């Protein structure tokens, strides 16, 4: 069968070896320059996504109890402060008359800072 | 790298190993050219198509689901690209009637003549016959390899080769007789 081979050598791309070599190098360079040829970048991106997800979970685990506790405390102190809220001038005058030192909480409540205003 | 199976080379190329990419290019540049030539029947266009198709295929290796079947996957892409090129060339030729065929500027006159004669003879074959005869006689692929790459049976590959060779010989002999008769 091979003896019957038709001679296609005139059509060979290597009819000019230098040209063929240039073709090979051009294709290799083009293939290597493509984004798909950078698996490291893909790995970093993949790792980055996992890292961000972990960070979100950690942040949630850390902040949710803190925020919840702070929320409960705020609600309690806000209630107390509201009940005690009076005219700041009168309150400060009363403290001055009694010569008592107000607590931080009372001071904040008197100045209207406990509810964030 | 030379003797490594496609699956190994593809896996390494996916990891960005330049040596594996180069081995694949060296292994498949000619088969890609042969399949492109079977479609476009023009050496210069076939070279362009083979280069483009190889480059794009290697850039998108992640899309090659079965690395062991890299050859059929690549050659399918080459075929599509070549047919697109052929359609573009036909449009261009229709506009620029009488353009010089197949970069007949390079090589000695005898070689250019032989090439043109071969291309004219190939033009008389069906697409699959051209692919089979070029992959077998130009690339020395076995019928098993051709069958796997073109998704046809080995028996059909043999039949196509037989018919293609007979048609090519008849056309080439006819051309030589015509020339001798003229001279």
What does this structure look like?
With 117 residues, chain A is mainly alpha-helical. Chain A is built from 4 helices and no strands. Chain A is rod-shaped and about 120 Å long. Chain B has 183 residues and is mainly α. Chain B contains 8 helices and no strands. Chain B has helices spanning 6-14, 18-40, 43-59, 70-95, 109-122, 127-138, 143-150, 154-182. The longest helix of chain B has 29 residues, at 154-182. In chain B, helix 5 (109-122) packs across helix 8 (154-182). Chain B is globular and about 55 Å long. Classes of the chains: A mainly alpha (117), B mainly alpha (183). Chains A and B meet through helix 1 of A and helix 2, helix 3, helix 5, helix 6 and helix 8 of B.
Tags for this model:
heterodimer; A: mainly alpha; 4 helices; rod-shaped; B: 183 residues; mainly alpha; 0% strand; globular
Shape, principal axes of CA atoms of chain B: globular
- What is the residue-mean pLDDT of chain A, rounded to a whole number? 73
Query: Which series of helices and strands of chain B comes N to C?
Result: HHHHHHHH
> Radius of gyration of chain A over alpha carbons?
39 Å
The proportion of residues forming helix of chain B, as a percent range, comes to: over 70%
Q: What is the number of E strands of chain A?
A: 0
Largest sheet of chain B: none
* Poorly predicted tracts of residues of chain A: none
- Protein chain pair with the most extensive contact, residues per chain: A-B, 28 and 40 residues
Gyration radius of chain B, rounded: 18 Å
Number of strands of chain B: 0
State the end-to-end distance of chain B.
Answer: 52 Å
Strand content of chain B: under 5%
Q: Biggest β-sheet of chain A: count, sense, barrel?
A: none
% residues in beta strands of chain A: under 5%
- Termini gap of chain A: 96 Å
What is the number of helical segments of chain B per DSSP (H or I, 4+ residues)? 8
**Number of helices in the DSSP assignment of chain A:** 4
Residue share in helices of chain A?
Answer: 55-70%
